[in-house]
Write a structure and sequence with these properties.
It is built from 13 helices and 13 strands. About 11% of the residues have low confidence. α4 packs across α9 and α8 packs across α9. The chain is α/β, with parallel strands linked by helices. The strands form four sheets. Strands 5-7-6-8-9-12-13 form a seven-stranded mixed beta sheet. Strands 1-2 form a two-stranded antiparallel sheet.
Length: 359
């Protein structure tokens, strides 16, 4: 039996058993319930009000998903956690609908997204989270690292909620498939990875799919929508932009710990067996505050981020080249992706750490 239908049946019988107990208790304590036992009330007692509401929400969400786009694109990229790192479905082609944009994905045998221009088979290997994934990217030319790698395709070992330590796990587990002389490119998302450096951070709190679920998703859209709606109910993810002020306060409050955790992480990267490693630090989106439909940069927050990054002693890390996103975003244009949590990939410009700090 498919895992999804096992899940549905288990919910059905759980609801039935609980509701029967409630029905018996109600019968023993009051004859009023018996006297007013209409078909609708029997229905409520049999299934349970909470379960009925969940399933009606689920059915509505599933129906609206199908009506939204005849191509049946996902609402968000499907991603799962295998207890080591987060990844996309393996060997799969799918699309994601971001408002009016449709983004196409093709993945390889390890869940890596493959961006190619059909001209060559020379790939740059990129590791990271959703910023490395390119949520608004359909081809090589739109990807921000294409400005550095002029004539290369990309293999993106990346997924939402794939934090810095999960990147290290990918490199460890896939080491036999990645030659020692490979160039390793790691994207560090300043918006989220600064917090994910905390040793207590756990992807399980935010990822509702596992490897088995990702295989089920390929053939079962009902299952995808069910997991999505339950994930929303459990607050494992949200469509809303996180509260900017809360993120800013968390950053300032944990500044010393973050500074320490960042240096520990850089040391770990520097000690990898690969001799050509590049780290790309992306600015946090929460340095910008929304004011009357406009985004204004908070100077105090940016200055503290600048201080954190420029505290890095690059001379300590002989095997690591560090690049940082330039603070050159034109906030008079639409510079964020559909979810308002990522910079549009083609607007990201990079410079060396030294140039960033001396700018």
């Amino acid at each position: 039996m498919k895992p999804f239908f096992k899940l549905i049946l288990s919910h059905f019988f759980d609801a039935y058993n609980i509701s029967k107990a409630e029905e018996n208790s109600a019968y023993e304590n009051s004859l009023i319930m018996y006297a007013s036992s209409s078909l609708f009330k029997k229905f409520l007692f049999f299934f349970g009000i909470k379960n009925i509401l969940i399933y009606f929400i689920f059915i509505f969400f599933f129906s609206s998903n199908l009506l939204a786009d005849n191509r049946r694109c996902f609402k968000i990229p499907p991603f799962g956690y295998n207890d080591y790192y987060v990844h996309l479905p393996l060997n799969y082609s799918f699309c994601v609908k971001n408002g009016k944009e449709i983004i196409n994905y093709n993945t390889g045998p390890f869940g890596e997204r493959i961006l190619y221009n059909n001209k060559n088979f020379n790939y740059a290997l990129v590791f990271g989270d959703s910023h490395a994934l390119g949520l608004d990217v359909n081809n090589v030319s739109q990807y921000f690292l294409a400005k550095i790698f002029k004539n290369k395709n990309f293999k993106l070992y990346a997924a939402p909620n794939n934090g810095p330590n999960q990147v290290l796990e990918i490199l460890k587990i896939q080491s036999k498939h990645i030659p020692n002389n490979s160039e390793i490119n790691i994207v560090f998302n300043g918006s989220t990875d600064l917090f994910r450096l905390n040793p207590k951070w756990d992807p399980k709190r935010f990822v509702d799919f596992n490897d088995i679920d990702l295989e089920e998703v390929k053939d079962n859209w009902l299952f995808y929508n069910y997991k999505l709606i339950t994930g929303l109910l459990k607050k494992k993810f949200t469509y809303k932009r996180p509260n900017t002020e809360n993120l800013q306060n968390s950053f300032i409050k944990s500044f010393k710990d973050t500074d320490n955790n960042l240096n520990i992480y850089l040391e770990k990267i520097n000690n990898l067996k690969y001799k050509n490693i590049k780290l790309y630090i992306i600015l946090p989106f929460w340095i910008y505050e929304e004011k009357k439909n406009n985004y204004i940069q908070n100077k105090f927050i940016f200055d503290n981020f600048f201080k954190l990054i420029c505290n890095i002693d690059s001379l300590k890390y002989k095997n690591l080249d560090i690049f940082v996103q330039l603070n050159d975003i034109d906030n008079s244009i639409d510079f964020l992706t559909y979810d308002k949590r990522h910079f549009r990939s083609n607007l990201i410009n990079l410079t060396t750490l030294n140039e960033f700090c001396n700018f």
